[in-house]
């Protein structure tokens, strides 16, 4: 299970404001990455996100992505 978090980033101090979270049930990180990026443009959120991250079941970040940034 992975949690996909979408957020805005404040330029002045890089603080994150979470806009939404989606649970994605899979054991495959690559599958979670594809799902996260597909939801980035299509998920209905109060604002357009600047970036997303995927966290594992322990709450550890395993992937970060924003347009123009290469994810890990």
Provide a descriptive summary of the structure in words:
This protein is an alpha+beta fold. It has one domain (2-65). It is built from 1 helix and 4 strands; from the N terminus they run E-E-H-E-E. Strand 3 and strand 4 form a beta hairpin. The longest helix has 14 residues, at 29-42. It is globular and about 35 Å long. The two termini are 18 Å apart. The model has no long low-confidence stretch (mean pLDDT 89).
How are the elements arranged and paired?
Layout: E1 2-9, E2 16-24, H1 29-42, E3 51-55, E4 61-65
Antiparallel strand pairs: 1-2, 1-3, 3-4
Précis, in short:
19% of the residues lie in helices and 38% in strands.
The number of helical runs is: 1
Q: Oligomerization state of this entry? A: single chain
Biggest sheet character: 4 strands, antiparallel
Radius of gyration: 12 Å
Order of helices and strands: EEHEE
N-C termini distance: 18 Å
Classify the beta-strand content into a percent band: 35-45%
Order of the strands making up the biggest sheet: 2-1-3-4
Class computed from helices, strands and strand pairing: alpha+beta
Q: Which word captures the global form?
A: globular
List low-confidence stretches: none
Total domains, how many? 1
Average pLDDT, to the nearest integer? 89
- Please give the share of residues in helix: 10-25%
Total strands? 4
């Amino acid at each position: 299970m992975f949690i996909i978090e979408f957020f805005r980033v404040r330029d002045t101090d890089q603080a994150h404001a979470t806009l939404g979270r989606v649970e994605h049930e899979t054991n495959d990180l690559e599958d979670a990455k594809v799902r996260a990026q597909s939801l980035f443009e299509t998920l209905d959120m109060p604002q357009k996100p600047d970036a997303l991250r995927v966290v594992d079941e322990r709450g550890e970040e395993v992937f970060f992505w924003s347009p123009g940034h290469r994810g890990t």
